[in-house]
Amino acid sequence: MPRTADHDARRRQVAEAVAQLVATDGFDAVTVARTAAAAGISVGLVQHYFPSKDEMLLHAFTLARERIERRVHDEVERADRAGARIEHILRDALAELLPLDARRRRECRVELAFTGRAIDNPRLAEALGRSNAHVRAQLAQAVHNGKECGEVEPAVDGNAAAQRLLALVDGLRLHAYTEPDTVTADAARDALADQLARVFTGRCHHRKSTRGGR
């Protein structure tokens, strides 16, 4: 068990070094040598855990996504315990994917860099597709739950609504990052809230409604 834990910790150390390089210097800065230096380990040790650069990038992308997904999950759990509307739970959870502060802006830089790389990297593209499918499934489930509690009309197509929401978030992430003076944090929040309000049009019969948010 200790060896496995140490192995995982080393791989995580390398993945975090990759994310750091991408966030500060861009994707072109990611080499095995620079990653080793950023992680504070030898080139040979990096190559021991990741025989190819593609494997190193894939692991870094996977961990970056998992970190964000855990935070989104925690936000959903917190809001659900507070009895918030599903609409508001999604609003605050999806806002975690947007560059609304320094921490999320750094994460978005890494996310956008990996997304661009996926165009020419089939393994990254496959991982990105799996992650997006997981998010869409969760969004579709949230719409289904909304139907059960009265927030969503029965005729709403949950899968289509999920696709539109994720597409909106992807677009907002890109434009809020590259054009922050035009697509401001408030504008991004408003666009997200507007789209959610088009889906969640009813009153929840099971929860108390909450107001406000980030």
Automatic annotation (TrEMBL):
The keyword Acyltransferase does not apply. Residues 31-50 bind DNA. GO terms for molecular function: DNA binding. It comes from the Bacteria. Keywords: DNA-binding, Repressor, Transcription, Transcription regulation. Residues 8-68 form the HTH tetR-type domain. PANTHER family: HTH-TYPE TRANSCRIPTIONAL REPRESSOR NEMR, TRANSCRIPTIONAL REGULATORY PROTEIN. SUPFAM superfamilies: Homeodomain-like (SSF46689), Tetracyclin repressor-like, C-terminal domain (SSF48498). It comes from Virgisporangium aliadipatigenens. This is TetR family transcriptional regulator. InterPro entries: BetI_C, Homeodomain-like_sf, HTH_TetR, Tet_transcr_reg_TetR-rel_C_sf. The lineage of its organism: Bacteria, Bacillati, Actinomycetota, Actinomycetes, Micromonosporales.
